[in-house]
Write a structure and sequence with these properties.
Shape: elongated
Number of strands: 67
Structural class: alpha+beta
Strand content: 25-35%
Number of helices: 10
Radius of gyration: 59 Å
Helix content: 10-25%
Length: about 1000
């Protein structure tokens, strides 16, 4: 409800040309916080300090916290013992001045130890409130306590007080006690007191300074000396003093009503730190003040609710320089605030521009010809700021009567006729005449939507790019042309994001789907289209174009959405990716500009990126106080400054005076843990402090943690490690700060770790941790030697035993051999006799088998002979039958008796036919495969010829064959001759030999 009332009130009652006096711009700083959420015991930080390694130490009444960027450890130095100051001597020993005495950090014990001394006067000081400590000489410290004493003493490298070195200084000139000891120039030490006086020590003599005439009587909380010879004095209620040592001149800074820039904003100054020409001032309630000696003005940094990058608390207790250019602030309620003063960026907060709603949407910003700065205000319209008079004009609200329309401004441009063009999201295009301070009505200007870009061509025509293409207006503001980049009205190519006129007058148009070049040809244009082609490495990396510019060599730079920066080479007509890889941190390039030194600046989704003429790339992001560009872009003013605007307000800096410090963070080891099964062993801090750890043999796994001195932008640091003795090349860890090893062999190793700097360059220096892996009992050299000797002894013993045993066995075997020889001879004789018997038996057996075979063969032959004879007899019967039939044929009468005789002869013939079958059966038993092989090899043979071959094989005579077949002896010879020709028997072989050699299956 309250927001609605504010909105209504703003729209209807604010004057559109409201003149508002603004507070001065401030030096832009971005703070980071370390609080109890990071492990601190409390958010009150009485004293802060970063040691040489990079460990952050925080003191309060509960104890002392050490913070390595991830883990916090608590050291207790007594109950309710307030920590006043941390101090590091030349030996890198850490000292702590507390309410209950002086403490020293013992690295071997990994704990704070209170310094004790037996002398009564000194004992009282060491046991009381030690307010401050400083180093006088290389091994000599000077301390002051609440009891009013000033004591010098020497310490060794281990932090032990050297006997008989303690000296109490004569401080009778000092009325009160010393609250601050500051080492100055020329071996002079400055002393601030609780009475508001300042003294100095020379050659152990305390002298009064010219500051005593200043009239200050307030407690001095702190002092600092700058490089101009000024001593800065912080008082507890009387503001800040500047004391020039050479001239004794004193200047007092005290809060005076609402007077801005000329003095501090709070008189309770708790801490002061001089850094070059800047003086950082901590107050109790006024936040952090910055005094610039160049400008002689103050900037104030206060807690801003809801802004996580503001200072965490307005009550500052301590200010200390840290490593890598950071400054540490200890606060009452906000823990620690850390910032880095990299370069001079001025800022005017967003609230000073009367932004209606702080919107993360980025702003467009431009300087006009009258050096007014115009910037969009998120969803709250347009602002005009005069840097000289610090006056602000507000333009906002539809239908408010001023002529300005629209709340969301997307583009700003000034033409050659001193007219400012402001394109909006929904209410079209506005034109403001800078000479008459009036808005001008543009034909069809209200109909345009999404006006992201405005440009002017070489004929002074105005090109207005919007969602549906381009509208071109003459210098007289007449609509003379409308361009559709693609014929399809719904094409993404018609959504124009940027327009740029190059040095030759060619117009380049970037759209959501492509880059277009328009060259004037008479009354028309020659259009060239460029789009991303996955098959062409020389095409655009993306067709989604957000920004266009031109380099000093006339190449065209093209910024894309998500795919980085492209360069168009005119000679080749090809595109190439600029600064490939991760050199350009942001991939969304919303703006491109060139400064007066020809450096290219990119407005990206992560901040600013600078590319110099040598193609060196520097990225500036949140860690550097540069916010991401969420819709807006940076611009260049007439003085060469870079302007940026957004939710944080208006910021600007001069790139010529850019003082960007390059630093390499120091790497240090925080813990080493060995793992043996389920047990974990943490190696003591003393070993890490000595850069050497000894690993027990049972620890199979080794986990090593490390950290860097970078507290402000820890996430931007990357690491590499090299295990000498195990690896040959550096191994990348990216942002990981842990290394694990398993089953390291016994021996000595050197683990080297290094980090990148803020420009992503690897440090040539590295931090080493020497690792000694102890061998197990069985891996020890002496044990191995003893094992070898034992093994050799056992071998010798075994050899001797074996030799003796073999000798005995040999003798036994010789005896046994003799006995066995006799037995063998007897056995051989017996075996010989048995063999002879067996041979004779086998011989007899073979003879019997041979006889049996011969008898069987004789029997078969006889049987064949009988069969043959029966066959011959059959033939004779057939001949008789034939003769008798011939007689009967000639006889006129039939003689039954003769016929009966013929029948009997025929019956006898049948009996003889069966004898041929018997013949074959017996023949096949003697010659089982002959007939089968013969028929297979010579299938044309007749059955009669087969029988002839069988008879020849069994050596039948021609006479018997003639009788068996019933033919003449001549016919047998003819049959044999035909058979020889039919079987192709050589003349050198007889038929009987051929049959005997016939291959059988």
């Amino acid at each position: 409800m309250i927001l609605r009332l504010r909105l209504i009130n703003f729209i209807f009652f604010v004057f559109l040309l409201q003149q508002t006096a603004l507070h001065s711009q401030t030096h832009a700083l971005r703070f980071k916080r370390i609080t109890s959420q990071h492990g601190l015991t409390t958010n009150r930080a009485n004293a802060v300090f970063q040691d040489f390694n990079g460990v952050l130490w925080v003191g309060n009444k509960i104890g002392i916290n050490s913070f390595d960027g991830e883990l916090t450890k608590v050291y207790h130095v007594g109950e309710n013992n307030n920590v006043n100051q941390f101090f590091e001597d030349v030996y890198k020993n850490l000292w702590v001045a507390t309410e209950f005495g002086l403490y020293f950090f013992d690295k071997k014990q990994n704990d704070f130890v209170r310094i004790k001394y037996n002398a009564a006067k000194i004992k009282v000081l060491f046991n009381s409130n030690v307010l401050c400590v400083s180093q006088v000489k290389e091994n000599e410290l000077l301390i002051s306590g609440g009891k009013g004493s000033l004591v010098k003493f020497k310490v060794d490298q281990n932090g032990q007080v050297v006997e008989n070195s303690i000296k109490v200084l004569d401080k009778r000139k000092i009325n009160g006690y010393v609250t601050k000891i500051l080492k100055g120039y020329n071996s002079r030490f400055w002393l601030g007191t609780d009475k508001g006086e300042v003294f100095y020590i020379e050659n152990d003599v305390i002298k009064e300074s010219g500051f005593t005439k200043s009239g200050n009587n307030s407690y001095i909380n702190d002092m600092s000396i700058d490089n101009l010879g000024n001593l800065w004095i912080a008082t507890n209620g009387n503001g800040l003093y500047s004391y020039t040592i050479e001239s004794n001149a004193v200047k007092h800074f005290s809060k005076k009503g609402n007077l801005q820039e000329s003095t501090i904003n709070n008189d309770v100054v708790t801490k002061v730190y001089a850094e070059g020409k800047n003086v950082w001032i901590g107050t109790d309630g006024g936040g952090l003040n910055l005094y610039s000696q160049d400008k002689k003005s103050f900037n104030y940094y206060m807690y801003d609710f809801g802004n996580e990058f503001s200072i965490s608390d307005n009550s500052i207790i301590d200010i200390q320089p840290g490593l890598n250019g950071v400054i540490l602030l200890g606060t009452v309620h906000g823990g620690i605030s850390i910032f880095r003063n990299n370069y001079k960026t001025e800022n005017i907060p967003a609230k000073n521009f009367q932004f209606l709603i702080q919107d993360p949407q980025g702003s467009r910003v431009i300087e006009d010809s009258y050096k007014n700065i115009w910037l969009s205000a998120g969803r709250a319209g347009l602002r005009r700021y005069n840097p000289k008079t610090k006056a602000l004009s507000v333009f906002s609200g539809t239908g408010s009567g001023s002529g300005f329309r629209g709340d969301i401004v997307l583009s700003l441009f000034e033409d050659s006729n001193k007219r400012l063009w402001a394109g909006t999201l929904r209410e079209g295009i506005n034109a403001y005449d800078l000479k008459t301070n009036k808005f001008i009505e543009i034909p069809k200007g209200r109909e345009l939507r999404g006006v992201f870009s405005v440009a002017e061509d070489k004929e002074s025509n105005i090109w207005v790019g919007h969602r549906n293409g381009i509208s071109i207006y003459s210098k007289e503001l007449k609509l003379i042309n409308e361009i559709k980049l693609e014929a399809n009205a719904n094409s993404n190519s018609n959504q124009v994001n940027c327009i740029y006129k190059d040095l030759s007058g060619v117009m380049w148009i970037g759209t959501t789907d492509g880059l277009f070049k328009y060259e004037k040809r008479g009354n028309s244009f020659l259009k060239t289209t460029y789009k991303h082609n996955v098959k062409d490495v020389h095409s655009l990396s993306s067709s989604y174009i957000l920004s266009i510019d031109e380099t000093y060599d006339h190449s065209i730079l093209v910024g894309t959405y998500g795919e980085g920066l492209n360069k168009y080479i005119r000679k080749s007509g090809k595109f190439e990716k600029v600064a490939n890889g991760d050199r350009i941190k942001g991939g969304i390039i919303r703006g491109i500009l060139q400064d007066n030194q020809k450096n290219i600046w990119l407005s990206t989704n992560t901040g600013l990126t600078k590319i110099d003429s040598n193609n060196n790339v520097s990225n500036f992001g949140m860690a550097d106080g540069i916010y991401p560009f969420n819709g807006g872009a940076a611009s260049l003013d007439s003085d060469g400054k870079i302007l940026m605007a957004g939710v944080y307000g208006l910021s600007y800096f001069n790139p010529e005076k850019l003082n960007y410090k390059i630093y390499f963070p120091h790497v240090y080891f925080t813990s080493v843990k060995g793992v043996n099964g389920k047990k974990e062993f943490v190696y003591p801090f003393a070993e890490l402090a000595n850069d050497t750890v000894v690993i027990e043999p049972d620890n199979k796994f080794l986990n090593i943690n490390f950290a860097s001195s970078e507290l402000y932008s820890k996430s931007s640091i990357e690491y590499q490690f090299l295990m000498v003795g195990l690896d040959e090349n550096w191994q990348n860890l990216n942002g990981q700060n842990k290394i694990s090893f398993s089953n390291l062999n016994p021996g000595k190793y050197e683990l080297r770790v290094r980090a990148t700097n803020n420009l992503k360059l690897w440090d040539k220096k590295y931090t080493s941790l020497y690792i000694i892996v102890k061998p197990s009992f069985w891996q020890r050299p002496i044990v191995r030697i003893m094992m070898v000797l034992y093994f050799i002894g056992m071998l010798l013993l075994l050899y001797n035993w074996r030799t003796s045993n073999i000798k005995k066995q040999k003798e036994k075997l010789e005896k046994l051999l003799d006995l066995k020889t006799i037995e063998i001879k007897e056995q051989e004789q017996k075996i010989s006799q048995d063999k002879i018997s067996i041979l004779e038996y086998e011989k007899q057996n073979q003879a019997l088998k041979q006889k049996k075979l011969e008898d069987e063969l004789t029997f078969k032959i006889d049987e064949l002979t009988n069969n043959t004879l029966r066959t011959i007899h059959k033939n004779n019967l057939l001949n008789d039958i034939k003769d008798k039939l011939k007689i009967e044929v000639k006889s006129k009468t039939i003689d039954k008796t003769s016929l009966q005789s013929i029948v009997d002869h025929i019956n006898d013939s049948f009996i003889l036919d069966a004898d041929w079958e018997s013949f074959y059966t017996v023949f096949n038993q003697v010659h089982p495969t002959f007939i089968k092989s013969l028929k297979k090899r010579y299938p044309a043979l007749s059955e009669r010829e087969v029988r002839l071959c069988a008879l020849v094989l069994i050596n039948f005579s021609s006479q018997h064959i003639a009788t068996l077949f019933g033919i003449s002896l001549t016919s047998v010879k003819v049959a044999r001759h035909r058979l020889r020709k039919k079987l192709n028997i050589p003349t050198s072989k007889s038929v009987k030999q051929f049959m005997s050699e016939l291959p059988l299956e």
